[in-house]
Backbone:
């Protein structure tokens, strides 16, 4: 019998405009989706839901959250009406009891989730649950929590971390460019991932100047640790959208399995 084990993805999501622009990044996400089995559900860990304590969306019809400012009206009109799946939120709590994951009926799908999924699964007909980033916890917690959710892959659930490996908006320039420190950290992280060396990436605060600039406030980096935590020894690892843009933004995406 063929396994239903799903790959897991980290998506470098970049600007919300990627939700409506036809560009190399949005095309890369769509191509990645075409190479996947159809998921039974999608679990997304987005950089844009930071909490104290850990929460999972538990509504039947999660709302589309436009959590940004200064963009064209067209972007605010986008809706991603995917159904929720309260049973999956309950399953998360059972798989990771130490994380004390609580149901949330207030949050919905923020742009870290829907800007990517509308390009990958434009029909919005696959149930989606979001898991928050508990910022009271250290990086090792996020990695371990990813590992605890591994059984979901055997149940056909696509787990997606959405953020950016390099993300420093304070230093960003609006042009096709890449700072040396951003290139350095992006390449070093890639090499560690290929070698299966996750500990340096978990202990990123020890990595020096380039990492400090690249990871900055860390919310865009932490979703990557969930995906690395899901990697089994037999899983392959591959990359797509391997580009730095704006000087300080890595659009690198990672596929496990």
Residues:
């Amino acid at each position: 019998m063929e396994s239903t084990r799903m790959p897991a993805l980290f998506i470098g999501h970049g600007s919300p405009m990627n939700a409506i622009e036809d560009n190399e990044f949005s095309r890369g996400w769509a191509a990645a989706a075409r190479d996947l089995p159809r998921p039974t559900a999608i679990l997304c860990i987005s950089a844009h839901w930071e909490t104290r304590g850990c929460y999972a969306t538990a509504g039947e019809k999660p709302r589309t959250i436009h959590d940004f400012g200064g963009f064209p009206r067209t972007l605010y009109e986008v809706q991603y009406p995917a159904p929720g799946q309260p049973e999956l939120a309950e399953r998360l709590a059972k798989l990771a009891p130490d994380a004390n994951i609580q149901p949330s009926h207030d949050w919905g799908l923020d742009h870290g989730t829907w800007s990517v999924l509308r390009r990958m699964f434009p029909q919005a007909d696959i149930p989606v649950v979001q898991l928050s980033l508990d910022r009271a916890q250290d990086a090792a917690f996020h990695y371990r929590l990813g590992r605890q959710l591994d059984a979901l892959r055997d149940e056909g659930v696509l787990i997606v971390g959405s953020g950016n490996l390099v993300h420093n908006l304070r230093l960003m320039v609006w042009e096709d460019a890449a700072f040396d420190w951003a290139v350095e950290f992006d390449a070093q992280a890639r090499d560690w991932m290929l070698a299966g060396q996750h500990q340096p990436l978990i202990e990123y605060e020890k990595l020096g100047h380039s990492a400090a600039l690249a990871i900055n406030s860390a919310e865009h980096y932490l979703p990557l640790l969930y995906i690395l935590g899901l990697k089994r020894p037999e899983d392959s690892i591959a990359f797509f959208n391997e580009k730095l843009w704006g000087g300080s933004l890595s659009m690198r995406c990672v596929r496990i399995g």
The longest strand covers residues 41-51. The chain has a mean pLDDT of 96. The beta strands are 8-12, 41-51, 55-57, 102-104, 128-134, 157-163, 237-240, 244-245, 249-250, 253-256.
